[in-house]
Amino acid sequence: MSPLRPRDLTAFSLAPTTVNLPPPTDSDSGSLVLDILCYTPTPTFVLDANLRVIHVSDSFRSVSSHLNRDQLLGIHVDDFCAKVTLPSNALVRGGIRAAQNTASSSMLEERLHDRIWTLRTVPIIRNDTVRCFLMEVQDTTEAHRRQLELEERSYTNETFKILVDTVKDYAIFMLDPQGYVATWNAGAQTFKGYTKSEIIGKHFSNFYSQEDRDNDKPGRELRDALRDGRCEDEGWRIRKDGSRFWANVVITPVYKDNVLLGFSKVTRDLTERKKAESTLISAYEEASKLKSEFLANMSHEIRTPMHGMLAALTLLLDTDLNPEQLELARVIEESGEVLLQVINDILDYSKLASGNFPISHDIISVSDIILSVFRTHEKCSKPNVLLQKSIDPKLPSAAEGDSLRYRQIVQNLLSNATKFTDEGYVRMQAKLQQEDDEYYTILTEVVDSGIGVPAIASGSLFTPFTQFDNSATKRYKGTGLGLSICKSLAELMGGKIGFHPNSEGKGSVFWFTAKLKKVKQLGQVELLQRKLETLSTASSTHAFDELRSLARNRRILIAEDNAINRKVMLKMLTGLGFESIDVATDGNEAVRLSTRQIPPNNSSPYDLIMLDINMPFLDGTQATKKIREAGIDVPIMAMTANALKGQAESYIAKGMTAYIAKPVDRKLLVELLLSCLQKRDGLG
Amino acid sequence: MAIPGAKDSIDEATFEQILEMDDDEDEREFSRSIVYDFFTQAESTFDKMDANLARSEKKDLKTLSELGHFLKGSSATLGLNKVKDSCEKIQNYGQKKDEKGEKEITEEEGLKKLETTIEQAKQEFHDVEKVLKKFYNDES
């Protein structure tokens, strides 16, 4: 290849925008050049150095209707511009100026009728002199629009990328479809401690604890995200250094054209919030606990002297009082009992509120409970109020539950009903609402024809410390705790409580349900014994005299391991008129003594057996079982210092007839003995 | 009938019931015998508890609980509230429960609490013993 001369080099260096036009000749190359100029699809015209038009392409017709080429050729560019639609003179002058100044081609735009036109001016230079100007006009509206769009899009992308990259309060990154980290941002680096190069390509399960990984929590989260379109989780995540932080994580699958690209993962560090939350919660719990403890302590402290007061009052009432004194003493007694009830309510409430309220699971009979409550109220019902009961025969005779608590609800609803009913009726009804393999659901209702509950108050009936009518408080005493206690109790029994107006006219219906677990059927003897349980409510002096008359010739067995208690019981019973009392010091002895057969008719040696619950060798309940198994059906009274709630019913369910707490209250003992002996007579 | 210095430690109503069983209010033979029997019983029960605690091999918490229950019964009958309450705690701790018998505690905790509570019960017993001896005019 021959070396290029400098002039040629200049010519080549201007390529491709500079065309070295050969002098016009008739040669083939000359006609080719003419063809190019005439038939180029780009609207083109050529000016000579004096700015006269020397060529116009055929295609120029598409931008300017003037096509009489002869009219255009040879005229000055200013005249040319005046004749054609495009380009404007100013644009052409601009192109020429640019070409003269830079000796290179230029592009200039102008707008006409909402379109953008571009004039490309190419100076044709020969021997450093501009020979002519090649000018092309093109509609670049579309290209222009595309360009703008592209710019806009790339600006948006860029902005998003910067945004994501620089956000420090959120870890935002992508996972590939298998869960490997694909992108990383500054927030992610801050939270998790990994730099971009350390983590890209690693699996995201690295952020989870070993336990979570063992449970395949990461995999589960991806599957959940795929299934639900999103997966959100709060939990501990692990940093690179092994420390942990409380994170909120949202995983979202990302699709493009229905193809899964991977998952976006946005993580927030909520450690501070979590800490603040738990501080708040523990502060609240502490305060609430203190409140409940305070309430419980206060009630307890008040209860002790109250008991003393009431006990002294009982003794006072037994003395010879004149009618006026008696009246006053009765007022004290009544107020004292109300006060004690209030204190007990508050004690219960504070226990329920603090969540440590024990519910026992003894064997209970709902119909017995209802009958017992009914009987108690029957005695003191108002003259114009008819007390009724209706018990579903399908009610189970035995089920697992807390008898004391069940009774408390029934009692409370019934006292409310009688309190607010001056005439008409109060009806208790219980029915088996539902039964499955494991549970009975029992519905208990108390229906009354009383003053009813205004609709406005029905919503807050079960809220603590509210009474629907403050003016009624004067007339109807109470703490406003009763129903809220009942609600908590019903809920503890797996049930609900509610109210609706009485459909039979005026009055209310209060109802509650309880889920009681099924037990296997009790034996016949036990069932028989259960029926014996009742309390006599005869007045104490009357009861005392009555017992005295019954006690003579009655044979009693006391089984008690503690000599002191034995001695006291013996003395007490002797004082009550019993003359034939045997003692046993443990359960075995009690069984041996009570199962001896006495001729001539093989009757039982005793009319009543009193058993301590905790005794060596054989305790009270085991002894009872043996005695009952021997076919002996005399009343058995349990004695215990374990005065826990619901215990009484469990003893009764185990075949005992009655129960008395230690220290034995003489008045109560008299009542119980009387009721046991009367039942025995009735049975015999 | 008020017992001087018995506030808090003796439940009046319960003790009154025992006193009412006395045939002669000056002699008070029955209640006196009961009270003195109780002194004996309490001493021997505390001795048994001490012996159990002094054992070098594994302490028998169950036995301590039973002893607590035993003494609880008689102190309750007499209305000796403080002693009774402590005995109830002994009974509960011995069953590895908290003082109210509600929550579980460990054996070590139970044993620790047993040691202090038994000491407390003894102290309470000796306090009430003084009061009762004074009541029965026995200043020895």
TrEMBL record, chain A:
Coiled coil: none
Gene Ontology molecular function: phosphorelay sensor kinase activity
PAS domain segment(s): 156-229
Cross-referenced CDD domains: HATPase_EvgS-ArcB-TorS-like, HisKA, PAS, REC_hyHK_CKI1_RcsC-like
Keywords of this entry: Phosphoprotein, Two-component regulatory system
Tree of life domain: Eukaryota
Record-linked SUPFAM superfamilies: ATPase domain of HSP90 chaperone/DNA topoisomerase II/histidine kinase (SSF55874), CheY-like (SSF52172), Homodimeric domain of signal transducing histidine kinase (SSF47384), PYP-like sensor domain (PAS domain) (SSF55785)
Name of the molecule in the record: Two-component system protein A
Species of origin: Bimuria novae-zelandiae CBS 107.79
Organism ancestry: Eukaryota, Fungi, Dikarya, Ascomycota, Pezizomycotina
Automatic annotation (TrEMBL), chain B:
Any Gene Ontology biological process: phosphorelay signal transduction system
Keywords: Coiled coil, Phosphoprotein
Entries under Pfam families matching the protein: Hpt
Residues where Phosphohistidine is found: H69
GO cellular component terms listed in the entry, alphabetical order: cytoplasm; nucleus
Residue span, HPt domain: 27-135
PROSITE patterns: HPT
Molecular function terms, GO-annotated: histidine phosphotransfer kinase activity; protein histidine kinase binding
InterPro entries listed in its UniProt record: AHP1-5/YPD1, HPT_dom_sf, Sig_transdc_His_kin_Hpt_dom
Ranges in a coiled coil: 104-138
Keyword Protein transport found: no
Family annotation (Gene3D superfamilies): HPT domain (1.20.120.160)
Highest rank taxon of the organism: Eukaryota
Record flagged with keyword Signal: no
Stored SUPFAM superfamilies: Histidine-containing phosphotransfer domain, HPT domain
Stated name of the protein: Phosphotransmitter protein-like protein Ypd1
Originating organism: Bimuria novae-zelandiae CBS 107.79
